[in-house]
Design a protein that fits this description.
- With 199 residues, this protein is mainly α.
- It is 60% helix and 9% strand.
- The protein has eight helices and two strands.
- Strands 1-2 form a two-stranded antiparallel sheet.
- The longest helix has 27 residues, at 115-141.
- The mean pLDDT is 89.
Length: 199
C-alpha cells in the first residue's frame, strides 16, 4: 500500500487510543491537522480506513451502539500498522520526493493569458495567501497557551512556505508592473481577455 498524508495521520491517531472514523475526522480538525491533511471528504476517509483494514494495518476492535448515533466501528492499530507507519514517517522525513501541485503547472502555461490578466490573478492569489497567514496566526494565538514547538512544526513549515511564495509573487508582480516580464501573442491575448471578462 502506498503511503499518503491521510493514511499516516490515521495510523498516528490510533497510536494513542482506538477510534471510530468520525472521531478521527474530528480530532484531525480540532488539532489543526486539516491544514496539512485533506480530511474534508468523509467518504474518502471511510474508503481509506477500509483499505487500511484490508491490508492489516488496522483492525476493527468493536462496534459501538448508541441509540442517538448510527452504529460506529472502533478501529485499533496493529503491530504491522505501527511498523509501516514508522517506515512511512522515516521515508517522508528523509527523502525529498517530486510532488506535482497545480500552481507550478499553471505557471508553465502562463503565455496563454495576457500579462495584465496574469498580474490581476497573481495579485488575487497574493491577497488570499496573506489572509491565510493571518488566519493561521490567529488560530495558533487563539489556543490561549503556548503550544510545544514540536506540536506546531508543520504549521511553522507551512507558514515559511507561504511567506516564501508571497515574496516570490511580489517579485513577479513588480516585473509585470514595470514591463520587465512580458510576452505578446495577440490571438492568445484576445482569447484570454474575452474569457476573463466574459465577453
Amino acid at each position: 500500500m502506498r503511503r499518503s498524508p491521510l493514511a499516516m495521520a490515521i495510523l498516528g491517531l490510533l497510536e494513542d487510543e482506538p477510534l471510530h472514523p468520525y472521531r478521527m475526522q474530528q480530532l484531525l480538525k480540532e488539532w489543526g491537522k486539516d491544514q496539512v491533511v485533506n480530511v474534508g471528504q468523509r467518504a474518502t476517509l471511510y474508503k481509506l480506513i477500509k483499505r487500511l483494514d484490508e491490508e492489516g494495518l488496522i483492525r476493527a476492535r468493536e462496534t459501538a451502539r448508541d441509540h442517538r448515533y448510527p452504529e460506529r466501528t472502533v478501529y485499533e492499530l496493529t503491530d504491522t500498522g505501527r511498523d509501516i507507519r514508522q517506515r512511512w514517517l522515516t521515508e517522508a522525513l528523509s527523502t525529498a520526493r517530486d510532488e506535482f501541485p497545480e500552481f507550478p503547472a499553471a505557471l508553465s502555461f502562463l503565455p496563454l493569458l495576457a500579462p495584465e490578466t496574469v498580474r490581476e490573478l497573481l495579485t488575487r492569489r497574493r491577497e488570499q495567501l496573506v489572509g491565510r497567514l493571518a488566519a493561521r496566526d490567529a488560530l495558533v494565538d487563539g489556543v490561549g497557551f503556548e503550544l510545544p514547538r514540536v506540536s506546531v512544526l508543520e504549521t511553522g513549515y507551512q507558514h515559511a512556505i507561504v511567506e516564501a511564495e508571497i515574496r516570490w509573487l511580489d517579485g513577479v508582480l513588480r516585473e509585470l508592473a514595470d514591463g520587465s516580464l512580458t510576452w505578446h501573442q495577440p490571438e492568445l491575448d484576445d482569447a484570454a481577455t474575452r474569457l476573463h471578462t466574459g465577453a
